[in-house]
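Exercise 7. Given the encoded structure of a 197-residue chain, write a plausible sequence.
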């Protein structure tokens, strides 16, 4: 399992790390910036299939509305933290993944997380690495519980959450499964599964 990147432990605007993958591809992982609005919009519109967009946003959007794009890229590095995975494609940057958390306003030591990986990068381990890094950052920022509401049909995300020690909790919405991780407990080693071809 790759070590956590200390440069990203408390993300700042200039922090970044390079992650290499077995298939020869690489990404730069860094904190999201307000100027990433175009990257985020292209990621949602072109990097995610309709099914992946639905699984991430739990709605049938085909493009990010301007207000949502601004919200996703204008983070404060305290209550709202987001990591972006960027790969070079045809000589230009392309967002291929993101992991974020937003602290609960009433319970600031609890945060809801979200994760998305471009369809052509799924199955390579990027989602797991982003999740582990996000957990590491959340711990450093004093978050004691990280949780997410996942569509029950999103079996890949539910499996990833389980492999990283997240436990199911009761949820009022029958379509959703809430998974949570107590961050004051040691992070279990993820179950190694070979990448899909």
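Solution.
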């Amino acid at each position: 399992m790759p070590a956590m990147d200390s440069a990203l432990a408390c993300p700042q605007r200039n922090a970044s790390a390079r992650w290499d993958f077995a298939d020869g591809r690489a990404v730069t992982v860094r904190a999201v910036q307000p100027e990433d609005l175009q990257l985020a919009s292209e990621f949602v519109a072109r990097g995610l299939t309709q099914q992946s967009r639905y699984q991430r946003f739990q709605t049938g959007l085909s493009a990010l509305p301007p207000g949502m794009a601004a919200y996703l890229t204008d983070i404060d590095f305290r209550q709202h933290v987001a990591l972006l995975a960027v790969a070079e494609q045809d000589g230009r940057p392309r967002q291929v993944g993101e992991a974020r958390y937003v602290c609960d306003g009433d319970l600031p030591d609890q945060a809801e997380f979200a994760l998305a990986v471009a369809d052509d990068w799924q199955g390579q381990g990027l989602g797991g690495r982003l999740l582990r890094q996000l957990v590491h950052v959340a711990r450093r920022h004093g978050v004691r519980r990280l949780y997410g509401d996942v569509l029950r049909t999103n079996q890949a995300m539910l499996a990833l959450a389980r492999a990283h020690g997240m436990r199911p909790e009761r949820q009022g919405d029958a379509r959703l499964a809430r998974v949570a991780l107590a961050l004051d407990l040691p992070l279990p080693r993820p179950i190694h599964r070979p990448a899909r071809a």
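Remark. The chain has one domain: 6-182. Students should compare their own answers with the one above.
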